[in-house]
Amino acid sequence: MENKNVLAVSNLSVSYKKKVHVLNNISFEIERGEILGLVGESGCGKSTLAKAILGMIKHESGEIRYNALSQGKGICPQMVFQDPYGSLNPVKKVGWILEEPLKLKGGFTKTQRRGRVSRMLDKVGLDSVFADRYPSQLSGGQRQRVALAGALMLEPELLIADEPVSALDVTIQAQIIELLLKLHKDMNLSVLFISHDLRVVYQICDRVMIMRKGEIVETGNVQDIYFTPKHEYTRTLLDAAGIERTIEACQEKAPLLRLE
Ligand SMILES: Nc1ncnc2c1ncn2[C@@H]1O[C@H](COP(=O)(O)OP(=O)(O)OP(=O)(O)O)[C@@H](O)[C@H]1O
Ligand SMILES: [Mg+2]
């Protein structure tokens, strides 16, 4: 059982400034290799959960266990943020930004680092000339490719993507989602995919968690949750997104993405 899950969270509670719980007694697992969706209205605690998993904020109680298979590889899960403008250092070139995690980890020669950077740029669909550019010289989509590359430099086994496409145009969104799916496959990644877009979640996630006010109200296979939601709140969320709860409607792929 240990090995099946890349992450196990149990009874996690988080508060800001010791006030009311932002996350209240949350438990769930991320299975190795799956894409797990996390949805819920704004302010319900999704980013807080992501940050707690990454150790960026402290949790009051509960346990977070990251079960990496290969100890030497990406030790920590990595995150891609919604805003690629804020998450890339504006005064450093892309090559520098991507080399940084390798430098911090140590054990690579300069040639090895450069080699890895150019291979990673290729993996995310960017020419190696981008290594010499500053983030301000990139489009939003290119920036998000760089952010993905940066998160994956140390080959983590878990990627947390916190609304990675919501700041992008629809066509660019589809490209980045396709890239994420390609990387998920090529690099054996498990993904926690946080999104407001219930259609994209349906298309790319294996399972989905519905969060409300710091609690998980239900979790299950995407189809089970979308066709037969058990919780009233889930129904409200699906209705608000205009998603018809019929098999036909769900099976028909939304026009946003054309996935093979
Ligand atoms: N640094 C902070 N200090 C105090 N309260 C915070 C802090 N960060 C977030 N909060 C509060 O915690 C709650 C959860 O915020 P969080 O950012 O996790 O929500 P979210 O689900 O990611 O929302 P969104 O969909 O808008 O990104 C909100 O009520 C928010 O105001
Ligand atoms: Mg958020």
Short note summarizing the structure:
The protein is α/β, with parallel strands linked by helices and 260 residues long. The protein has helices spanning 46-53, 84-87, 94-105, 110-123, 140-152, 170-186, 198-204, 222-227, 232-240, 247-251, and strands at residues 5-15, 21-31, 35-39, 61-66, 78-80, 158-162, 190-194, 207-212, 215-221.
Describe it for me?
With 260 residues, the protein is α/β, with parallel strands linked by helices. The chain folds into two domains: 33-57 and 71-77 and 158-260, P-loop containing nucleotide triphosphate hydrolases (Rossmann fold, 3-Layer(aba) Sandwich); 85-155, no CATH class. Helix content is 37%, strand content 23%. The chain is built from ten helices and nine strands. The strands form two sheets. A six-stranded mixed β-sheet has the order 5-6-7-3-8-9, with helices on both faces. The protein has a three-stranded antiparallel β-sheet with strand order 2-1-4, covered by helices on one side. Strand 1 and strand 2 (21-31) form a beta hairpin. Helix 3 (94-105) packs across helix 4 (110-123) and helix 5 runs parallel beside helix 6 (170-186). The protein is globular. Residues 253-260 have low confidence and may be disordered. The site of magnesium ion has 3 residues, from helix 1. Residues 16, 22, 42-48 line the site of adenosine-5'-triphosphate.
SSE layout:
Layout: E1 5-15, E2 21-31, E3 35-39, H1 46-53, E4 61-66, E5 78-80, H2 84-87, H3 94-105, H4 110-123, H5 140-152, E6 158-162, H6 170-186, E7 190-194, H7 198-204, E8 207-212, E9 215-221, H8 222-227, H9 232-240, H10 247-251
Parallel strand pairs: 3-7, 3-8, 5-6, 6-7
Antiparallel strand pairs: 1-2, 1-4, 8-9
Helix pairs in contact: 3-4, 4-5, 5-6
This protein binds adenosine-5'-triphosphate and magnesium ion.
